[in-house]
Amino acid sequence: MDLQDLSPAAFCDLLAREGIERFYLVWDADAGRVRASHPLVEPLARRFEQDHRDFDRHEGVFVRRAPESGVLQAVFLHRTCRGQGAGGVRFWRYDTVEEFLQDGLRLAKGMTLKNALAGLWWGGGKGVIARETGRAEDPAARRLVYQEYGELLTGLRGAYVTAEDVGTSSEDMAAVFTRTRFITCIPPVLGGSGSPSIHTARGVVRGMEAALAHLGRGGLAGKTVTIQGLGHVGGLLTGFLREHGVARVIGTDADPARCAALRARQPDGDGFTLTVRATELGDNAILAEPADIVAPCATGGVLSPETIPTLQAPIVCGAANNQLLDSERDDLLLAQRGIVYLPDFLVNRMGIVNCADEQYGSLAEDPRIEAHLGDTWENSIYNLSLAVLAEARAKGEPPGRVAVRLAEERSFELHPLWGHRGAIIIRSLVANGWAG
Ligand code: NAI
Q1: Rounded CA gap, 157 and 165, in Å?
Q2: Which atom of ligand 1 is found nearest the CA of 114?
Q3: Are strands 160-161 and 85-86 parallel, antiparallel or unpaired?
Q4: What residue's CA is closest to ligand 1, atom 4?
Q5: What is the rounded CA–CA span in Å between residue 322 and residue 246?
Q6: Which long-range CB contacts under 8 A does 277-281 form with residues at least 24 apart?
Q7: For atom 29 of ligand 1, which residue has the closest CA?
Q8: Which atom of ligand 1 is nearest to the CA of 348?
Q9: Which domains does the chain have, with CATH numbers?
């Protein structure tokens, strides 16, 4: 069986048998190939070289089987021209090593685009932890998993700065913080800014308003919005939409407890109704509900040739990362159906903006945050969304393509003070035998 077809647990067993605790796959620009730290993982390097889309010359992928918990943990550094790779750490179940790696690659690439488009001096990075590879379910075991993750980041000497992502909580962040300083989104009691989801949800609202304005459909008042995923962002988004006069929200979540909690927080009344449905993981029926806007706020890859023909809403605007199963094909499919799609990396930037700002101290009402959410700065979510949609219309291109082009351009700008330091750190890690 090929290495990438193994389950993460079987892969961990193999690493243990071979005595490998850590390995890396790094892009050697001079040789034009991926260098692997160990012969065992050479097939993964060759696999990366063939996969131009997701791999896209990632500067480095660093993987570890955590010594005590036995959990598979990885850091993906896509492009660090603008600064350290920054993005959240995902704690998720994967069936195969291929899925684990592909998720990390796609997410890190998305962070390159998001950070560049938001004007942050950060590069693209992402962390992934394979949930089922160790004993991570009870609180003490889980704390250990995140502490060991913190050790991994310390060992990477700041090339990557982590934050919260799907499956990870503020408590987990506090556990990471016991072992590394390369972290944001830590709880306020430890000097951080806490959960970023409030700002993320507010940013998604601004994207929705821009899409409505672009189509000449007025504001949010009286509209119907469907939301897939009523977690941190989806739950808060429901409340903000209500405040903006939305008449009806229809939401689903795979976790019945989250449905019930939101139902309790948002009773019907004052011209607002909420319908919540518990659903199965992977059930995308909510996307096909009649609505003014559909907001994917669960996991990625939900917009595909299977789901796009079923959409009834004229606008797609949500928080989930990598909503398009295939970023080029599905962006085009949506445009061909006349559906306005606002790229996730444009409208869900506020989580990482909050993390980036945290390093410079926090304010109760931070003008730096409000600039992203307002109407005056040309790079705010609202104004940039309008600009991207206008350019897409003028050139007859899908908005995703326009946004990617702009983000790519910006992602190669070098940090004004620190140059391409992330790449220098990666070279130094390799030269100093990071993988043992
Ligand atoms: P979360 O983990 O709190 O919520 C996700 C929810 O989606 C969970 O309740 C889960 O049960 C549900 N879910 C999963 N598959 C589903 C399905 N098929 N149907 C219905 N529900 C399903 O995550 P969070 O923080 O709310 O993030 C949501 C999305 O937004 C993720 O893709 C995340 O990467 C992205 N994002 C979040 C940011 C933040 O500030 N929290 C920032 C930027 C992006």
Answers
A1: 21
A2: 43
A3: parallel
A4: 231
A5: 26
A6: 277/250, 277/251, 277/252, 278/252, 278/253, 278/254, 279/252, 279/253, 279/254, 280/254, 281/254
A7: 320
A8: 43
A9: 3-195+424-431 (3.40.50.10860), 197-397 (3.40.50.720)
- Residues in contact with ligand 1 by the CB-under-6-Å rule are 165-167, 196-197, 200, 228-234, 252-255, 258, 279, 281-283, 297-299, 319-321, 348, 351
| Residues in the chain where the model's pLDDT stays below 50 | none
How far apart, in Å, do the first and last CA atoms of the chain sit?
26
Q: What is the pLDDT of residue 136?
A: 59
Using H for helix, E for strand and C for coil, what is the string for 216-257? CCCCCCCCEEEEECCCHHHHHHHHHHHHCCCCEEEEEECCHH
Beta bridge partners of 74: 63, 128
Nearest-angstrom CA–CA distance, 318 and 304: 15
Cβ contacts of 419 within 8 Å, gap of 6 or more: none
CA dist list (Å): 314 to 48, 208, 270:
37, 11, 26
- Cα-to-centroid distance, 231 and ligand 1 (Å): 5
Over its C-alpha atoms, the chain yields an Rg (Å, rounded) of 21
pLDDT in tens, 96-149: 999 999 999 999 999 999 999 999 999 999 999 998 766 656 888 999 999 999
Which atom of ligand 1 lies at the shortest distance from residue 284's CA?
18
Q: Which structure tokens are listed for 398?
A: 């899908």
Length, in residues, of the chain: 436
Q: Whose CA is nearest to atom 12 of ligand 1?
A: 229
Q: How far is the CA of 234 from the centre of ligand 1 (A)?
A: 7
Catalytic residues: 126
